[in-house]
Specification:
It is a single chain. It is built from eleven helices and eleven strands. It has about 300 residues and is an alpha/beta fold. Strand 2, helix 3 and strand 3 form a beta-alpha-beta unit. It has a six-stranded mixed beta sheet, sandwiched between helices. About 40% of the residues lie in helices and about 20% in strands. It has two domains: about 140 residues, 3-Layer(aba) Sandwich (Rossmann fold); about 140 residues, Isopropylmalate Dehydrogenase (3-Layer(aba) Sandwich).
Length: about 300
Amino acid sequence: MLKSFDDLLALAKKKGPKKLAVAVAEDKEVLGAVGKAKELGIADAILVGDKKKIETVAQEVGVDLSLFEVVDESDSQQACRTAVSLVSSGKADIVMKGIIDTAVIMKQVLDKEIGLRTGKIISHVAVFSVATYEKIFIVTDAAMNISPDLNQKKEILENAVTFAHSLDIDDPKVAVVCAREKVSPKMEATIHAKELEDMNKNGEIKGCTVAGPLALDNAISKEAAIHKEIDSPVAGEADILLVPAIEAGNVLYKSLTFFAEGKNAGLIVGTKAPIVLTSRSDTEEAKLYSIALGVLAASK
């Protein structure tokens, strides 16, 4: 069981190193995280971007550029294309977003010629560690899919399960989170939740244990589950929280970050290679943790 991000870093060190292709790398937090990942033996990197700017920023944060390959590309869109191409051609294992809009790099990820599509849905997994829960857990999808239908939720769930396996969680417990834990014809999310649970029971969804609908309290609190007389192997022990729509995921993500002061990291999955797609405002620490997630996902 991974109880903290220190455990996650240790696992990434054991399974790494992998190679990053960093698109538009001239960013302090990005270069600081890449430098730390190199120091820890987790990842190497090819830095793609404006070489002069990369050199300036590297000097400011104390990163030795002689340890990395630098590809000089001052055009941001072309830098994204080059980074994605390095991964699709097998020269790197993971794409990492630097100081660039998500839409710009995702356009290259989805490109038919050099992109990383697999035919699966592309989704986001966020990993959290909070003081009130005994282990790290995954929230999906809080960033990519706005209002997924039942089949899309199934694929998002399967992406998260595959990712959980890369964290050595062999049988992840998936809570399909809704506003209540009983099926209501007035709440489509609860109907979807029950159907996903049934798919798991009949073997259509494999490699995990799914329960739904569950409200957030009984998904993560054994006491709440007992109080509401919920008998489920997932209740109070969820490894994955599957949210019904992006609004719920976004609110949960930011509540865990700002109210609970949880540590977090994120990754795009469902592609041929993992994509470290952090916010430009994320800390160096969060970016380092996200690199570790990419290394683990690339090692599966």
